[in-house]
UniProtKB/TrEMBL annotation, chain A:
The keyword Transcription applies. It comes from Klebsormidium nitens (Green alga). Residues 19-29 have a biased composition (Acidic residues). One of its GO terms (molecular function) is zinc ion binding. Keywords: DNA damage, DNA repair, Metal-binding, Nucleus, Transcription, Transcription regulation, Zinc, Zinc-finger. It comes from the Eukaryota. A zinc finger (C4-type) spans 309-326. Belongs to the GTF2H2 family. The keyword DNA damage applies. This is General transcription factor IIH subunit. SUPFAM superfamilies: Cysteine-rich domain, vWA-like. Residues 386-406 form the C2H2-type domain. Gene3D superfamilies: von Willebrand factor, type A domain, Zinc/RING finger domain, C3HC4 (zinc finger). Residues 1-35 are annotated as: Disordered.
UniProtKB/TrEMBL annotation, chain B:
GO terms for biological process: nucleotide-excision repair; positive regulation of mitotic recombination; transcription by RNA polymerase II. SUPFAM superfamilies: P-loop containing nucleoside triphosphate hydrolases. Residues 7-284 form the Helicase ATP-binding domain. Its main location: nucleus. It comes from the Eukaryota. This is DNA 5'-3' helicase. Its EC number is 5.6.2.3. The lineage of its organism: Eukaryota, Viridiplantae, Streptophyta, Klebsormidiophyceae, Klebsormidiales. One of its GO terms (molecular function) is DNA helicase activity. Its cofactor is [4Fe-4S] cluster. It is an enzyme of class 5 (isomerase). It is found in: Nucleus. Keywords: 4Fe-4S, ATP-binding, DNA damage, DNA repair, DNA-binding, Helicase, Hydrolase, Iron, Iron-sulfur, Isomerase, Metal-binding, Nucleotide-binding, Nucleus.
């Protein structure tokens, strides 16, 4: 149906490879694309997602304002106060690749959508939690397969997942939990243990008692969250409730992305879960390009620039990671600084209420200069106000400021007041 | 919270009230004010019980001259739930009002549920416990024990008896368990204490039978005052309960047993004649004067009362030809002989009581008047002969039961003799049924005796039919819808399979392989898309067997098993309980399961499939009764002649209420959600659909009708995703919840 390939957002390296192989086919396909332009629009623009059926069965355009409020409500649900967070996370991502993942209610299939979004999630995860580790487990044909060990390198996870796509058989949540627990059990106490299950299946086919597996997870203080693709399953709800995780169901691809990314910021940590302790870390220096050295991670002679472990002088290619020789945590200071914003978040913006005099309203967003709603000829949607600097922002900028920038442009432009908290 | 309802202060134990609860209270209050009867339908999950309890107890507080609240439930489990609710309400009222709000509320059940005697309470069946109790508590046993200390007595009954009228329960709410605990602590028998305390209680909760079955009601409910309010909860099948209370079935075994009983009784009479002839003579004299004065009998000697209704029992002397014990036994022998002969009929016979009596008179010389007394005469004889083991004489009691009913009623009954089961014509299994056709007979005394009777249930649609069936004039008839914060139920009418061919369980279509396959595909598709539990209801056991067989051959069952485990209800209770238990376990552990069940079966009536135990219920077909059944035909004829209810109207009404009852199993509270699929093209027709209860109809969108399997699947997927999103349960603003402040405002929501 869809003219795009199975991995519409695949990395360029793959695309190049494919180009080389399918050069001839591509032209024919290109021609086919032109002939069926309506189809491409259908697949790319997702026009059906912009429509909603009302009570009388009529189709209506989506209510943008209501939808934006709904999304904001989800963001605001996270407490904005200064709370203790588990900054050093060990997260096992359990991806369900059972028969149900081959269903096509998400386009082109659940599996392809999940794979693409998991890639986004992994990148976002390491961006927000540079000190953390992640591993992937696949559920397929009744067993749990460990795709990657817990490690800090996003690229290796993404490659491993891409390489092993293919749906088959039943999913066994119990096997997945047991394998995840085995991986997370030896983690030191300061690490925050988490399991995130991306579940397509509505049933779990277990060899033993899943309630025992859940109890074991609870005992090991593993926070298990589930993101479902189809409907609410009781056992997943129980798992999340007992282990302190969340259980959410995606209604569309965009929603699934939001739900997955909700797991990117570090979750709140309880005092008894993670006692404060000092951790030994190394801040390696970057070697200039051109100096040949044997890389510890690839076991190969490399010429490009790399980092050198300050303790054992081994060479590693990317940061953050664990030294392959002396297993010290290696990272750079910007990584550490990036984790900082979780502790001092930007205060959530308030929605502007159309009560005060609209004469002095700024017509554009302070950050992006796009037109704001509420004035004559303005856009649709919500208008937001920063409680600290009182500047007006649009919905998209609100999302960027709170999700990736973690700095309010308005507050930064203002002459600093001495009592402001940093951030 | 506390609020004013048309001048009555209502105490309600929760912070919030649903709008439909408010209107419900209003209707109940109006019925009580008018001292009339009410017929109210409100869906399950809207807090019907607490609304009723709160309104009526508040009414009692405001009008101290009002009598008791008598709350009739169908099962012991429901009784306990009501008592728990009442306890909450009571705690709140006492907090608000102090001591003056104290009430005494108790549940009454059979000896089996209340006995605390160490050995007898361990007996399995109800009859055994009853008989065991009588052996220890009968007057003659106790007087014999006074002379001979070796005879065993029940310590608890003796403890209770010693206290006499001083044995009282302090005010409070007592569940069956509380009664037992209290009884143990005091050393009193909880059963007799409870029966004694009915006179003093403000709220009594017991089973339907205690009110409707004249045999039981004559003993238990005799002394209740006129001002009482009687509530029948979950009363959608009340007409059937009424009919069952007055119907008797006799089988070959019963008659054989009755003959054995007669021989035994004959021996006992002979023995008494030799040893204690005075007793028999005393009984004879008593019978000359009139019927055994049951009122003077001690409580512990009472057995079941006359099966006929109190008004119909003649207050006159027992006819001369059965006053002597041996004459009576000879009379019964003749009667049993006659019944046996009739039972040997080769084809189905159906007749009215009049022609039956005529034939009886001609061939056996038994007249109706004598027959009328046969139950009481047997009762009196057994007391005289000091027989405690009533269980042993069960067969003979049944025969006398039959005799008395036939002798008393000439209208509204039919006698049907079937020599074999319709489904197995080669196996002789004769059965003689005395079937009551008129449901208004048994409930008539209740309406006449009590000031207000409230009949309520989640499904009473079409509500206009009930007053005609039960032959009464309610002052208020109302059906309430559910106010919802989200669409927590999603009914759909599926009329076609994916191949666009219609599906139905109509007789000429049901065995069509295309229909069977389409039904199967529907379940396979749904099993893929719906999490946890799915419940399927079929129209009958035989249809379920047939369709499961074909699904097995087509490989559909195998496909279902890939997604969910399959469990089946059978006619065996133990097996079904086991299947249900495993079904729940499969739902709990995430494997998911499908339960195949039958409309009108035990599961459809009493088992809840709430939350994840039932996310979807599929009603395969319209559950019409077996229309070739003689009893049903006789009843339909009677309804048509007496109440002018058309046959078709009644059949449809009965089928749709069963269907509504089945699908209603899936949703038990507002925070729950579930889908319902009516899989038959006949639901598409207005005359069927419009008979569904209001709370289903209001949720049945036009876009959810006349669906095919793939359309239904699409709707199901969307719906399940939508329902899985988090929602706020408190929504005072949208008007689906009322708090105290909202109720102080003038009420705009008058129900027309």
């Amino acid at each position: 149906m869809s003219p795009a390939g199975p991995h519409p957002q695949g990395p360029p390296a793959d695309a190049l490879l494919q180009d080389a192989e399918e050069d001839g086919d591509l032209e024919a396909e290109e021609a086919g694309r032109d002939a069926r332009a309506w189809e491409r629009e259908y697949a790319d623009e997702r026009s059906w997602e912009m429509l909603q059926e009302d009570d009388a069965g009529l189709l209506r355009a989506l209510d943008v304002t209501a939808q934006q409020r709904e999304r904001r409500r989800r963001h605001l649900a996270a407490p904005a106060a200064r709370i203790r967070r588990g900054m050093i996370r060990y997260l096992v991502l359990v991806v369900d690749l059972s028969r149900a993942a081959a269903e096509v209610d998400f386009h082109p299939s659940r599996m392809a959508v999940v794979a693409a979004l998991v890639e986004v999630f992994i990148r976002e995860f390491f961006d927000q939690n540079p000190l953390s580790h992640l591993g992937i487990i696949a559920l397929r044909a009744g067993v749990a397969q460990r795709l990657t060990e817990l490690s800090g390198s996003p690229q290796s996870h993404i490659t491993a997942l891409k390489a092993s796509l293919g749906a088959d058989g039943e999913a066994s949540l119990q096997n997945g939990l047991d394998l995840a627990r085995a991986a997370l059990a030896p983690i030191p106490a300061y690490g925050h243990r988490e399991v995130v299950v991306v579940s397509s299946a509505l049933t779990t086919c277990d060899p033993g008692d899943i309630h025992a597996a859940i109890a074991a997870c609870k005992k090991h203080r593993i926070r298990c969250s589930v993101v479902g693709l189809a409907a609410e399953v009781y056992i997943c709800a129980t798992l999340a409730r007992l282990t302190g995780g969340t259980y959410t169901i995606a209604t569309s691809e965009g929603h699934l992305r939001d739900l997955l990314l909700e797991h990117a910021p570090p979750p709140p940590a309880l005092q008894q879960d993670a006692p404060a302790s000092l951790i030994r870390m190394g801040f390696p220096q970057r070697q200039p390009d051109g100096a040949a050295s044997i890389c510890a991670c690839h076991a190969d002679l490399r010429l490009d620039g790399a980092y050198v472990c300050p303790r054992c002088k081994a060479r590693v290619c990317e940061l953050p990671t664990e030294c392959h020789v002396c297993s010290i945590t290696l990272m750079s200071s910007p990584h550490l600084a990036r984790s900082y914003h979780h502790l001092f978040p930007v205060p959530p913006y308030d929605e502007w209420q159309a009560s005060s005099s609209s004469a002095a309203l700024p017509a554009t967003c302070f950050a992006c200069q796009a037109g704001l709603p509420g004035v004559a000829g303005g856009a649709t949607g919500v208008r937001l106000v920063c409680p600290r600097c009182a500047r007006h922002f649009c919905f998209d900028c609100d999302a960027i400021v709170h999700e990736s920038l973690h700095n309010c442009p308005g507050c930064e432009c203002r002459p600093a007041a001495p009592d402001d908290p940093p951030g | 919270m506390k609020f004013n309802l048309e001048g009555l202060t209502v105490y309600f134990p929760y912070e919030y009230l649903y709008p439909e609860q408010y209107s419900y209270m209003l209707e109940v209050k109006r019925a009580l004010d008018a001292k009339g009867h009410g017929l109210l339908e409100m869906p399950t999950g809207t807090g019907k019980t607490i609304t009723l309890l709160s309104l009526i107890t508040s009414y009692q507080l405001a009008h101290p001259d009002m009598g008791k609240l008598i709350y009739c439930t169908r099962t012991v489990h429901e009784m306990e739930k009501v008592l728990e609710e009442l306890r909450k309400l009571q705690a709140y009222q006492e907090k608000e009002l102090g001591k003056q709000a104290q009430i005494l509320a108790l549940g009454l059940s059979s000896r089996k549920n209340l006995c605390i005697h160490p050995t007898i309470s361990g007996e399995g069946s109800r009859e055994n416990v009853d008989a065991g109790c009588r052996k220890l508590t009968a007057t003659w046993v106790r007087s014999a024990a006074a002379e001979n200390p070796d005879i065993e007595l029940c310590d608890f009954f003796e403890g209770y008896e010693k206290k006499g009228a001083d044995a009282l329960l302090p005010a409070g709410v007592y569940t069956l368990h509380d009664m037992k605990v209290f009884g143990r602590q005091k050393g009193w028998c909880p059963y007799f204490l409870a029966r004694h305390m009915i006179t003093f209680a403000n709220v009594v909760i017991y089973n339907y039978q205690y009110m409707l079955d004249p045999k039981v009601a004559g003993v238990i409910s005799r002394e209740l005052e006129k001002e009482c309010v009687v509530v029948f909860d979950e009363a959608h099948n009340i007409d059937n309960v009424c009919i069952e209370a007055l119907s008797v079935n006799l089988r070959q075994q019963t008659l054989d047993g009755a003959q054995r009983n007669l021989t035994k009784l004959g021996q006992v009479v002979e023995k008494f004649k030799a040893t204690d002839a005075d007793r028999l003579r005393a009984e004879y004299n008593r019978l000359v004067e009139g019927l055994a004065q049951r009122g003077t009998l001690p409580q512990n000697d009472q057995m079941l009362a006359n099966p006929a209704l109190p008004d119909d029992i003649l207050r006159e002397a027992v006819p001369g030809n059965i006053r002597r014990a041996e004459h009576f036994l000879a009379f019964l022998k003749r009667f049993v002989q006659y019944l046996k002969r009739r039972m040997g009929a080769q084809q189905v016979e159906s007749e009215g009581p009049l022609s039956f009596l005529d034939d009886l008179n001609n061939s056996a010389g038994i007249d109706a008047k004598t027959l009328k007394f046969c139950y009481d005469r047997l009762h009196s004889l057994m007391l005289t002969l000091e027989i405690t083991d009533t269980e042993e004489f069960h067969h003979l009691t049944l025969v006398c039961d039959f005799g008395t009913l036939v002798g008393t009623y000439t209208q509204g009954f039919a006698i049907i003799i079937e020599p074999f089961d319709e489904r197995m014509p080669h196996i002789s299994d004769p059965v003689m049924q005395l079937s009551c056709l008129d449901s208004s007979l048994a409930i008539k005394p209740v309406f006449e005796r009590f000031q207000s009777v409230i009949i309520t249930s989640g499904t009473l649609s079409p509500i206009e039919l009930y007053p005609r069936l039960l032959n009464f004039n309610p002052v208020t008839i109302q059906s309430f819808a559910m106010s919802l914060t989200r669409d927590c139920l999603c009914p759909m009418v599926l009329s076609r399979g994916s191949d666009q061919l219609p599906v139905s369980t109509k007789f000429d279509m049901r065995s069509d392989p295309g229909v069977v396959r389409n039904y199967g595909r529907l379940l396979v598709e749904m099993a893929q898309a719906v999490p946890d539990g799915i419940v399927c209801f079929f129209v009958s056991y035989s249809y379920m067997d047939a369709i499961i067989n074909s699904w097995n051959e087509m490989g559909i069952l195998k496909e279902i098993m890939q997604h969910k485990l399959v469990f089946i209800e059978t006619q065996d209770v133990v097996e079904t309980t086991l299947a249900l238990d495993n079904y729940r376990r499969a739902c709990d552990c995430g494997r998911g399961a499908v339960f195949f069940s039958v409309a009108r079966g035990k599961v459809a009536e009493g088992i809840d499939f709430d939350r994840h135990y039932g996310r979807l219920v599929i009603m395969y077909g319209v559950p019409f009764q077996y229309t070739l059944s003689r009893i049903l035909r006789a009843r339909l004829e009677y309804l048509r002649d007496t109440f002018q209810i058309k046959e078709n109207d009644f059949l449809t009404f009965d089928a749709i209420r069963q269907a509504a009852q089945c699908v209603g199993r899936v949703i038990r509270s507002k925070s729950d959600y579930g889908m319902m699929i009516f899989a038959d093209k006949r639901y598409q027709r207005h005359d069927k659909r419009s008979k569904l209860p209001n709370w289903i109809l209001s949720q049945l969108k036009d876009s959810h009708m006349n669906l095919s399997t793939d359309m239904a699947l699409h709707i199901a997927r969307e719906y399940l995703r939508r329902m899985a999103q988090p929602f706020d349960s408190l929504s005072v603003d949208t008007g689906t919840l009322l708090n105290e402040a909202a109720l102080q405002r003038p009420q705009p929501m008058e129900v027309g």
